[in-house]
Amino acid sequence: MLNLKGKQVQLRALEPTDLDFLYELENDTAIWEISGTLKPYSRKVLQLYLENAHRDIYEVKQLRLCICRADQECIGLIDLFDFDPKHRRAGIGIVITNPGDRNKGLGAEALSLLCDYAFSTLDLHQLYANILEDNEASIHLFEKMGFVPIGVKKEWIRTSSGFKNEIMFQKINSDVS
């Protein structure tokens, strides 16, 4: 894998020592709306997930990486999902767990690192992101990183307060055909 290290953050593979971090993140009901989670995850299920996290993106169609500070503190996760090598595209998602770490350029740097990896190493033609219409911070982040809105999925996500629209964003790698 390329050096996925920036000035403030680095991206690294999940490790067995990430179990507690993953447990807290996956069971944080505040992000279930964006992650599609419907029930809590047990430590055992997450342990099994970590044991298989080394599998190749071409096999499992997903890549999940930890976003870490220079001191190795894990502050979030970033994913490629629905990896489609034939059509050379994948979805991308990001979460920075602590609100105090947001709006400091950490997410932008992590997103930039993973986009560069997806375009240069995986030779993807495009990346896409699905963002709830009221998630202004994510919309701002993805637009800042060159993603453009391409459509709205009306009443796509059911929440406790009703249905919400989801905006689909896309970034095309102009360096490849």
TrEMBL record:
Stretches assigned to the N-acetyltransferase domain: 9-173
Molecular functions per Gene Ontology: acyltransferase activity, transferring groups other than amino-acyl groups
Annotated PROSITE patterns: GNAT
Pfam families: Acetyltransf_3 (PF13302)
UniProt xrefs under CDD domains: NAT_SF (cd04301)
PANTHER family noted in UniProt: GNAT-FAMILY ACETYLTRANSFERASE, SPERMIDINE N(1)-ACETYLTRANSFERASE
Stated name of the protein: GNAT family N-acetyltransferase
Organism: Flagellimonas hadalis
